[in-house]
Amino acid sequence: MLKLLISVIFVLCLSLRSYANNSYPNVSGDLIVNLGVDKLSGKGEADIKKYTSILELQSDLSLNLNRNWSITTLWQSRKVQKDYYLKRRQYNPIISSKNREILIDDEALFIEELKLNFENEDLIFFVGKYNPEFGRAWDKKRRSSIFTTFFARDYQIREKIGLGITALLEEGELSFYPFFNDNTNLSNSAINKRGRNRRDYKISGNTNNLSSYVVKLSGKNFLYLDNLSYHLAYKKIDVDKQDLSEENGYIVSFEYLFKIGSYTSIIPFYEAVKTNNVGGNRGNDSLHQMVALHLNYSSWNLSTSYFSKNNKYSKGDDIIDKYIEYSVGYRVSDNVKIEVSRVESKENNFDYISLFTTLSYFKEF
């Protein structure tokens, strides 16, 4: 089913691409490619590989039926372990993962979003498979460092089935996203099979009803301050097993744009996420925090960021990870960026230094 769906959408995109953008139906979208390598040094576990490759692709594709209606998809390709849903854990190391390899054998292609979408000047409504908007740092379109994406992916909410409605305010958006976990064949992947989610797996959201939800308020000019954008959200992810507890939590995110002349800007960014009963596991809580300062000058980008991840377990043995990142990026063209990042970390009680070198490509069409 997944291979057939991929083939059908690919053929549709090729055939409809010839239409002019001002006629319907037409296809629009974008492509993001991150290619790089990470060199690790430290005194952690001996079986952790020194080098790992980075190859990630993301593509938004929309089949625009008319001015208001569209079928939208979000495709991802990245490293995913086999039996992904069975082996997922609350604690996921970012730097010292044992899956570090210079390989592409574990690359998986999967669909994170497939939905029917309606939009006008007042609201957005959709139904299907989607990612509720909970946080901003994980969004690759922000073109943050690859490590920022890895860190924020730990709390991103992905691959849900349900619907969403967004009221478009004068300078913001108010959204409501009811959902449950995808346990259809679309939860599997092509190339490297990660396996599909099952209804009987013990994880929050596996309810097959719309009892879980995210409520989000986001916008700009917070408290009438020009160039101060915000993202506030609350999540409630339901369970239907007696030995699980409802997962809930909130996110607070702010970003301010200081413009200094035509080519220079300074952007401080903050995002914090508190989660209770992670994955439905009673008493297992987490707190993620990120503080970043970006300096943009012409084609150059300099940034320094601090990350912390506090995992609290009901049986003790809490883990507190901390990371400091220094990053330099240069935009070769409108589509290509080269970036080098040094990350100093204390992860799972070990000290590491990681050096990321990444080539990024972004194209809208």
Labels describing this entry:
365 residues; mainly beta; 16-stranded antiparallel barrel; 3 helices; 7% helix
What does this structure look like?
This protein is mainly β and 365 residues long. It is 7% helix and 53% strand. It has three helices and 18 strands. It has helices spanning 2-16, 84-87, 146-152, and strands at 26-42, 51-64, 69-79, 107-119, 123-130, 160-168, 172-181, 190-191, 212-219, 228-237, 247-256, 258-260, 264-276, 285-297, 300-312, 319-331, 336-347, 350-364. The chain has a 16-stranded antiparallel barrel with strand order 1-2-3-4-5-6-7-9-10-11-13-14-15-16-17-18. A hairpin with a 6-residue loop joins strand 15 (300-312) and strand 16. It is globular and about 55 Å long.
Q: Strands, helices and their partners?
A:
Layout: H1 2-16, E1 26-42, E2 51-64, E3 69-79, H2 84-87, E4 107-119, E5 123-130, H3 146-152, E6 160-168, E7 172-181, E8 190-191, E9 212-219, E10 228-237, E11 247-256, E12 258-260, E13 264-276, E14 285-297, E15 300-312, E16 319-331, E17 336-347, E18 350-364
Antiparallel strand pairs: 1-2, 1-18, 2-3, 3-4, 4-5, 4-8, 5-6, 6-7, 7-9, 9-10, 10-11, 11-13, 12-13, 13-14, 14-15, 15-16, 16-17, 17-18
Q: In summary, what is this structure?
A:
The chain has about 375 residues and is mainly beta. It contains 3 helices and 18 strands.
Largest sheet: 16 strands, antiparallel, barrel
Number of helices: 3
- Quaternary structure classification: single chain
End-to-end distance, in Å?
A: 27 Å
Coarse shape? globular
Mean pLDDT: 89
Low-confidence stretches: 14-20
Structural class, from secondary structure content? mainly beta
The Rg value, from CA coordinates, equals 21 Å
Strand order of the largest sheet: 1-2-3-4-5-6-7-9-10-11-13-14-15-16-17-18
Query: What's the helical proportion of residues?
Result: under 10%
- Could you tell me the number of beta strands? 18
